[in-house]
Design brief:
- It is built from eleven helices and eleven strands.
- The protein is an alpha/beta fold.
- A hairpin with a 2-residue loop joins β9 and β10.
- The longest helix has 12 residues.
- About 7% of the residues have low confidence.
Amino acid sequence: MKTLFCLADVHGFYDEMLSALDSNEFDINNNDHIIVHCGDLLDRGNKPLECLQFMNSIPDNRKILIRGNHEDLLEELFHRGYWMMHDVHNGTDKTVCDIANMYEPFDREKIYAAIMKCSENEELRQYLDSIVDYAEIGDYVFVHGWIPTTFNDGILIHKYEIDNYWKEGNWEKARWLNGMKEWSQGYTLENKTIVCGHYHTSWGHTFLHNSGIEWDDEYYIDSSEDVRAHFEPFIDKGIIALDQCVAYSGIVNCYKIEIEDDLWQ
């Protein structure tokens, strides 16, 4: 048997990621232990380079690394060569400064130099070359936001339809979808479980499971509901959502899946 250790949205929080793996008894030297990360490895946390080094240290035959929207944002920044407001809001500028080891680059020339230095970092290039849009293993499909959807905009009816060619769909757009919302509207794959990240699981627990639970005051409070945020994995038929909003919760979710050896190629 192989064990998949599934993570999502680590966002540069290296110590929290290791804590989650350690508590689930991940052994980096065990050939039957597989890392699956569902996108957004960087931005916001203080140790992006350590996260890159860890993922790169896992042999290619023992990991699946899914592309997230933050990986897209980073590469868009490389092509553009200067900050925009969403780079600051999403923490992409922080990742650049941390990886380039260049801080307070306020003028345009220094910003460009930091961006170019970051883009040439070998650890980052290795990671970006290894990420994929999705992975399908047996009964599981691993994505970042959700699978690509087809939206029909009628006069009175708004309905999602399952597209049999979802694998060739618009993955850049799909990475921004709230998978729990897509799942709740019936956009699922028959006899498959989609494992996703991107949108914090407290949303699903509050609005779909209605099971917000009490947390300590240090945890994020959903301002739209009078409940404490609940960041444990959101699990139901056809979905496992993992984004724990680590910048607020201080935790990284790790969900283990056992698969037969012959399903792992």
